[in-house]
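hi! just following up on the protien thing from before. the input was this:
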Amino acid sequence: MQHPQPKDDRTSHQPCLVIPPLIDNHGRKITYLRLAITDRCNLRCCYCMPERGVPFIPHDELLSYEELERLVRLFARLGVKKLRITGGEPFVRAGCLEFIHRLKNLGCVEQIFVTTNGVSTAQHLEDLKKFGVSGINLSLDSLDRQRFRDITRRDYIDRVLATLHGALALNIPLKINSVVTDRSSDAEIIDLGYLARCYPISLRYIEEMAFGGAGKTISRPGNRLKERLERLFDGIQECPPDTASTARLFTSTGLVGKIGIIEGRSRKFCSSCNKVRITPQGKLKACLYDDGVLDLRALLRSAASDTTIVNAVRHSLISRHLNGHDTEAASRRKHEPSMATIGG
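and the predicted 3d structure came back as:
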């Protein structure tokens, strides 16, 4: 099928003109883009990257903010309505706050979210609120200081909690992401769940995935999070499913907010997947488990036109796997990369 081609507007600041939407070979419409702006982080979470010897991407190999902005405009014209800024930790990259402001001023996407570990985010909350950011996803795996330090290899829990309470005070929509590992105790899970009892947040427990960047493999298909939550939280009931979300949410009479699970390792939400990712070095990922389906940085730096880039993006999704299990099998990797290098 021939699609109307976009006008090349690399220097234009006019509202984005929508062209026929981006749809993969299984009929899934892509409306959500995760944009990783850096692979650097001020934590060293044990499930995300090694404690030492992390081979960071050289700065000149990262996409510039101008290149990222151009891609956002193009994906918005392809029908992307939701954008998430992530990393690594996005706020360790100089100019991150100004970049978010520029994206909001573009007016191309309906929603802009930020995923952060909260270590250096509290100082930016008032600006994020003023910009109209749609919400924050905050990573927090334990409320116990020693366990937090064991997991993250840093003693920054006070900074993270300042971000949590600051966002609540400003009424910024907040979700807490908590990775459940083999060492996560029932008490830890219950303590975190207390946040959803007190505050109007979504507390999502996430299956650990094998993206620690140190050759670690996790062979189990999941750790039965749903059964564990049913045992730990009395009377929880599953909310009606949201096909646009990767989380299964639960509520009960004892919760002000909601608790949920994200079954990333089990991959139970692939059939309705509406997202793609761009890594810090400009690789387009059609799935968290692939090795990249298109080198956007090479296109951008070869002076490719908007039309060329749009056509390449469309073509990269004509052989997308139906689910993450098939994608992982096709990649044939012996060791998994760091989560920080692929945008989470």
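Residues 155 and 166 are 19 Å apart (CA to CA).
Residues 218-223 have pLDDT under 50 and may be disordered.
cheers
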